[in-house]
Amino acid sequence: MKRLSGLLILIFFLSTNVSAQSSKWQSAFNTAKAEAQAQNKMILVYFTDNDSKSDEKVLYRQFWSSSTFKSMASNYVILNLKVSKERKNKANEDIYEARLKKNFNNQDKYPMVVLADALGNRTGISLSEISEVAINEFLTKLQSH
């Protein structure tokens, strides 16, 4: 009985560890791009800041935690780009981050989710309005892409 319970605990920890690794969010563009190319996946670029907490909560509940997204999450590498108030100031922003923002978030909206291919090219599919209707439309576009 002790062996069986020990085995079950081991299986639980191993499966938890594997699922945590497969859903690991990246924070560096080049790492996300390399992972996407190696695994033949698309990239979801998630822009967030410290000022949009209510929108981020809605996005978390209705998008990231939705059964629809969870069912297709393994098809994507998720890149989480956090922008602080200080870094929004262009004088303090590094050139690399400025280029990423210009390419993916030229509207300077937060939070925002943008779909890119494995090479890091923007596909034209994005979520910049945080509402139930917009989130559902975005999920539909992801399902058909």
UniProtKB/TrEMBL annotation:
It comes from the Bacteria. InterPro entries: Thioredoxin-like_sf. Gene3D superfamilies: Glutaredoxin. Keywords: Signal. Pfam families: Thioredoxin_7 (PF13899). Residues 1-20 form the signal peptide. This is Thioredoxin family protein. It comes from Winogradskyella maritima. The lineage of its organism: Bacteria, Pseudomonadati, Bacteroidota, Flavobacteriia, Flavobacteriales.
